[in-house]
Amino acid sequence: MVSKEYIRKFPQKVNQVLQESGDDKEWLFHSILAILEKSSENLNFSEKRVIQNIHEYCVEKIVKKQAENFYKDFNIKDIKDDLVKDFFKMEHERRRDDFRNFCLTIFQQIENITNELFHSKLISQISNDRYKRAYTYQKSEDTIEMMLLWNDRFPEQDYDKKIEKIGTWPFMAKFKAVIYYYYFGKRVYNQFELFPKIRIGNQLYLMRNRVHRGPSINTEQEAKLDEIYQNRSIYYLRFLGFLEDFVWNVNKNIV
User: Which one of 111, 158, 197, 240 is least enclosed by Cβ atoms within 10 Å?
Assistant: First the structure.
């Protein structure tokens, strides 16, 4: 039987081997992981998530590098560090199959970019552009303020009051403005071109509200969220794809 003293010294022995110069030590990691995985069921490692934590530790540096590379050319320097951190957390949640927090961390990246662009650049621009034509479709007479603020449930809106309070617009109104001005660069044929981007942003917003304290969710929205969660294997990829698409297109229009 192996003595407790030997067991206590074993990690130090492993560290000593790793510190020695010479051949690549990757074989050592593989050997230890193979033994742990084989023994995990008898040793009740699964409940303690030991194997998963070891794998997590091994890939952390890789994921951090991926996060830094993803945002390395992003043109808003002030928020880049926060974006990298949230990207790192996003990948952490994805590997642990925590879909709700995965959605939260994607939303936080999009929210950070949206708020920065809206408050630093778009408030004055929207106020100046409010009466300009919104779409390239010649038969459309929708103005930018109509495009951004129109609500089927409240058609008789006081646009002047809305514009006066532009600094307090809710997230989805700000997000729509960023999509119009920065994702599309104001080159939008009609409202139907905007809808797919707005819809996926709203899905992430609703998922965020389920995790974080936010506006209450109605029965229809709850059903949509349940459908997303039941098909989360698809939405992992869909939301990741949207993040890449959003960041790339917005970044190219930031000057």
Answer: 158
